[in-house]
Every structure is written in structure tokens, then in C-alpha cells.
Amino acid sequence: MINRRVIVKIPASTANLGPGFDSLGMALSLFAWIEMEQSHTGMTTFQLHGDGMDGLPTDKSNLVYKVAQLVFKEAGVEVPELHIAMYSEIPLTRGLGSSASAIIGALVAANALIGSPLSDDKLFQIATELEGHPDNVAASLFGGIAVSAWDGAEAQHVRIEPHPSLEALVAIPAFELSTEKARHALPSQISMADAVFNVGRTSLLVAALASGELGLIRHAMKDRLHQPYRAALIPGMTEILERATDFGALGAALSGAGPTLIAFVDAASPDKAALENFLRATLQKEGITAETMWLAPCMNGPEVTTWELPVGSEALSQERMSLLERIKGEVKA
Ligand code: HSE
């Protein structure tokens, strides 16, 4: 019996940052929590808290359960019955990396539960394979800004420390957009001119973020690979991407596959309220209600808290404190 309880706090992420399709990601200070322990009842049990959790499976088809089992298999141990609790403030299917956070949370929690036999790089490889692209998972796992590449077999990444003045404004439309649908909108081929356009912008963006030359971001956050094709799915997006810099943004992009839009600003900018109004009003004009949030980049990957439980504490688990009670004080709502 493993007498240990693990809680992992995982950051949300924004992928692509404009031109860096399937390559660039940044961790954001919006979080999900996963609690995991071996079940003392001999049955797998779930406690799912928070908006959007209602429809998620509470049996062994649950993503977190399945991902945890991959870790145990890789490590050669058997922990078939688990107690899993989850709480998330990351909205689902909005382009803020909720599925990547769940995958990373499940991998890190399961690994910590069995004494962390797998390296972070191994977890990154498994997560990339599961997601099908490395951008969100790298950001959630390593924190900060992650630059990564994957050839279908192996992924590499480099972490960049976000400039201390960088802050993000997200506008989260009140409708869902699946990554699958948003990827379906993309062409299978693009022109050499568009490829060259994106290579230049992505390289410039990485160099600007690494060197702290924030003034270059407005030139670098331009894209011809995915955003133009996804624009029809997010009314108001084109105007926001074109004009956000007129309202003080350093640059703006579709967050991941959308529909969330993200603008980066200097945290000390006096234009923050005007930018927020512009984003809301532009979406409103298209009949779209959106929630806006100011989020700092999250500098770290998952935070792991582990409790060694006294042997024979099974009875206590009947009246266990809920995950929400344990993390209250940290959650936004
Ligand atoms: N790079 C991915 C995309 C992120 O844009 O489709 C979404 O998961």
C-alpha cells in the first residue's frame, strides 16, 4: 500500500504566440489542481470540482486515471485503484491548455505518488505524444516560455525566462472551440512565401523574448500559417490582432487553437483599461460575450505537495477533507 497523498498545482498555457505554431508556449498564472492517492477502498473514486467538470467521466475512462496508469506501466509498478480529485479554474476548450494541464498534472502526480522514478524529460515525451504537439505541455511542465520541436518520435525544448514586465490580457469568448475543429480549418499546404514569413517572425519573436527586446514583439507576432484560416471561427479576431497595438499592446494572438485571444502588455502600461475595453467592445460588436482576465506569466511548472500518511489511516479517508478545502485561499473564485 502506498501511504502517500500528492497534490499537484499545474499552470494553464497559451500556445503558438502568433507565428510559432505547435512550437511556442507560455505558462500562465491560472491553475488546475490534481490530488491523487492509492484508493484505500479497493475502488477507484473521483471528486471533480469546478465549472465544466460535470460532463467528465468518473470511471477508469477518465483522462487523469488513464494517464496515471501510463506512468505506472512505464515504471513497472501496479496501482490499479486510485482516489483522484480535481479542481480547475482553466476554462475547457477555450485555447488555454486545459487538456495539456490535465495530462501534465496526471503525469506529475502519478510519478510523485510512486517516488518520482521518471525524469521530467520522460514525462515531456509522454505528454507530447498524448497531445500530438509539444507547445502547451512544455509550457505547463517547465513554466515560463517554452520553445519546442517534435518530429513524431522525440521532442526537445528550451525554456526562456519571461521578461519581468510581461503581462497578458486574455479575452475568453463564451463559446467553446475544439482544437480538432480549429485544426481542421488549416490547409494541408502553404506557399514558400508564407513559410518564409513565419520562419522570420518566429525567429524574431524567440530572439526578442530571450533578449527582452519587447518593442520587437509587435513586428514578430504576425502569422500566416494558422490565424488567417481560423479567423472565420472567431468573429472579431482579425480586427483585434490588427489593432491591439494601437491600444498599447506589445502584440496579440489567437491563444492556441482559440477561441481565446491574448494580448501582451508591459505591466506598467497606462493603457491597460483602454486595451481591455477595446477587446471586449470588438467581440461585443460581433455578438460575442467574453470574460477578460489579466494574467502574469507563470515562471514555474507544477508545484507538488506530498504527504506521507500514517499507516492505518484508511479509516480517516472516510471523512477526508476535500481538495477544495485544502487549496482554498489559493483559488481565484
Ligand atoms: N498548436 C496547437 C494549435 C495548440 O494551434 O492547434 C492547440 O492545442
Would you identify the regions where 5 or more consecutive residues have pLDDT less than 50? none
Portion of residues in beta strands equals 15-25%
- CA-CA gap between termini: 36 Å
In total, the number of strands is 11
CATH architecture of the largest domain: 2-Layer Sandwich
Shape: globular
Series of secondary-structure elements, N-terminal to C-terminal: EEEHEHHHEEEHHHHHEEHEEH
User: Helix coverage percent of residues?
Assistant: 25-40%
Ligands present: L-homoserine
Overall CATH class of the largest domain: Alpha Beta
Write down the CATH topology of the largest domain. Ribosomal Protein S5, domain 2
Domain unit count: 2
The mean pLDDT is 94
- Rg calc: 20 Å
Helix/strand class = alpha+beta
